[in-house]
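Try it yourself: sequence plus magnesium ion, in.
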Amino acid sequence: MDGNGRWAKRRGKTRVWGHIRGAGRIKSVVREASDLGIRALTLFAFSTENWSRPDAELTVLWKLLKKFLIRELEALDREGVRLVILGEMDRLAPDVRGVVESAVKRLSGNSGMCLSFAVSYGSRREIVHAAKQFADDCVRGVRKADELVEAKGEALFQSYLWTSVLGDAADTDLVIRTSGERRVSNFLLWQSAYAEYYFTETCWPDFDAECFRKAVREYGARERRFGMVDSTERVAGDSQA
Ligand code: IPE
Ligand code: MG
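Structure, out:
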């Protein structure tokens, strides 16, 4: 969800104003994703690098997350949305954590779309955490290092990532980046190994349900081969003989 600050600056407003308008967009995109039957939607709300922003901005960002979860809880529940958090939960202030945990708990029994907020999230951090946990399990004798290079080794490692809560929807299909940036910025690096990327100039506060539909439509028109070849294509000269 990038571009709140620039969007506001272009309008002669403060960055905080941009965040407020950006937060206002979340609801419609979540509803659209759920209506389209998307199984998992992850919103990159706050990166590990974002901690170094000015305190005044951080205060607003956390307030907006709490506000969204409190205000939208009923509606999310009605839609059957499940909520998960990806990131360093232990770094969140107790009040933010309280709101987040109770929202996660309240929506935990739902079986509709899984909405995840990546907060204090960094993909490298996630991978390093997973490596440490796996190493701890090896020391405890629960795992053996060799298991990682066996047939199901990658799936095993994946089960240590924060996104393991997404089950078989953990592999990212589409990454949408707003605001004209063409970077990955430490987002779901492992999970996006075969993802399609969609870049748009639109800043997050202008990114509405129609923009989301457009991205999904474009994704639908792409051919995904996962390193393989189209099964209908002729490969060698066998049929020419
Ligand atoms: C995205 O908007 C919101 C968060 C990262 C929390 P930015 O704050 O990154 O906006 P720009 O990139 O400065 O325009
Ligand atoms: Mg930005």
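One thing you can check immediately is this: The chain has one domain: 4-218.
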